[in-house]
Amino acid sequence: MSPPLPTKPDFLAIEAEALKSADRRTTILALIGNLVFTWSNNESMFIYFIMVLMDTDEISAAIVFSTLNTTRARLDLIQRLAKIKIADRQLRKDLDDLIERFNATTRMRNEFNHAMYEVNAKGDITHTHSMRITEQRGKLKFGQTKKVDSARIEDMSKAINDLRVLNRDLWDFLPRLQAHREKLRAATAKTAATHARSAGDAGMTPKA
Fold first, then answer.
1. What's the pLDDT band for 138 if we cut at 50, 70, 90?
2. How many whole angstroms separate alpha carbon 128 and alpha carbon 156?
3. Domain range spanning residue 38?
4. What's this model's pTM, rounded to 2 decimal places?
5. Number of independent structural domains in the chain
6. What average pLDDT does the segment 110-125 reach?
7. Is residue 203 one of the residues assigned to a domain?
């Protein structure tokens, strides 16, 4: 026997009542939009990190960025490049800290971007329902349900503010990263020139 289908919502009744909760619903939807917007702007900043670390142009960096089709893969690439392209330990640590701050907001962004939303009879958004399958005590469970209460709304506001601050810090970090790479390239070029002169001197035949 097939399992029972969920009860079809009374859409007319919900729409009639929804006007009473419009302000709160608009606030929640605006926060979700701002969260996704600010997160996406920050993720796109990492194109320039790839550009600097790979010593390439913006278009080439964007191709690499888009070819890696997950955020985790993009950040893994940046951190792996950093290990061979950044000699300054403090600079590398600062980069890791920026990525960790971004990752912290990613968890909340994913919660709201990849969720179903539960609405009560008054049209009020009450819960998010994760689309992820989890396992608890050997049993599979379809997602996790969380209340969209005042505390959760406050957490969203904080995450948006954290992303705004992070965006400025990413912009401030880029010139430091570029200056470091230019310094290393100059040192490498100087060393290569010195080796070339030494090789040339060694190859000279002394006059009789």
1. confident
2. 13
3. 22-114+150-183
4. 0.82
5. 1
6. 90
7. no
